[in-house]
Amino acid sequence: MNRRLYALHRWLSAAAFLQLAIWTLSGAFFAMVPIETVRGPFVQDANVRPLEAGEVVAPGVALGRAAALGLDAPTSLELRASPAGRFWLVRAKNRAIRLSAESGQAAPVTREEAEATARRDQPASPAVREARRLEAAPVELRGKPLPAWRIELDDAAHTVVYVDATSGEVTARRSDLWRAYDFLWSLHIMDYRERESFNHLLIRGASVLAVLTVFSGVVLWVLRARRWWRERT
Predict the structure, then answer these.
(1) Residue 83: predicted pLDDT
(2) Is the CATH number of domain 108-174 3.40.30?
(3) pLDDT digits over 134-158, tens only?
(4) What is the reported pLDDT for 226?
(5) Would you tell me the crossing angle of helices 201-232 and 2-32 to the nearest 10 degrees?
(6) Which fold has domain 47-107?
(7) d(CA 99, CA 74)
(8) How far is CA 70 from CA 65, 87, 97, 98, in A?
(9) Rounded Cα gap, residues 73 and 183, in angstroms
(10) By C-alpha distance, which of 140, 67, 119 is closest to 97?
(11) At residue 42, what are phi and psi to the nearest 5 degrees?
């Protein structure tokens, strides 16, 4: 009986070893590196400006212009200011339009505005290495609104700032440290593609395997302890 249990424990341990090691190492990384450090530095309110007094397009006119541009059933209307100017942001369920607050014309975020927004967002305002407009989200932008501008900055952390191409807001900041964290997170939860779900069959199976490994080890320890005690007495 003991031989079979020893053999079972060895095979269970061999099967579970890699994932147990990954859980241990990645968990240690998560515990030792503060999430604020992973998210990286940024300049607070760098792209926010107070609203100044002055004539703007009336809310009803802004809604009419948005409807003329194809935005149906708007759910919110917001007047906001940024270094690029004053804008009406009209949102519907699955879409948004930004309008110039002065003229009421559509005001999509240009490449130049996105680059300036990304540079202001980061300390020391690093230069832009590359700028691309995205219609499909890469893994590191999952769950964020599209389309978006991907602004890669020329700094030591290889920071990429994502700017919403509709509202002009910074929606994500990604660095080498964040990418390492995200990769380890995918290994930790065993969701290697979406990197979000920790309630799936693969991780359930690995968890059961880990529990069986520990349980068989405890049983072996108890059996050895009993044998040692009998020999002593």
Answers:
(1) 95
(2) no
(3) 999 999 999 899 999 999 999 999 9
(4) 76
(5) 120
(6) Nuclear Transport Factor 2; Chain: A, (3.10.450)
(7) 14
(8) 9, 18, 9, 13
(9) 40
(10) 67
(11) -160, 160
Quick one: tokens of 87?
């804008």
The tens digit of pLDDT for each residue in 19-50 reads: 888 989 999 999 999 999 999 999 999 999 99
Three-class SS of the chain: CHHHHHHHHHHHHHHHHHHHHHHHHHHHHHHHCCHHHHHCCCCCCCCCCCCCCCCCCCHHHHHHHHHHCCCCCCCEEEEEEECCEEEEEEECCCCEEEEECCCCCECCCCHHHHHHHHHHHCCCCCCEEEEEEECCCCHHHCCCCCCEEEEEECCCCCCEEEEECCCCCEEEEECHHHHHHHHHHHHHHCCCCCCCCCCCHHHHHHHHHHHHHHHHHHHHHHHHHHHHHHHHC
pTM greater than 0.70: yes
Domain boundaries, the chain: 2-36+185-232, 47-107, 108-174
> What's the confidence (pLDDT) of residue 191?
87
Q: Is the pLDDT of residue 219 over 80?
A: no
Q: Do domains 47-107 and 108-174 have the same CATH topology?
A: yes
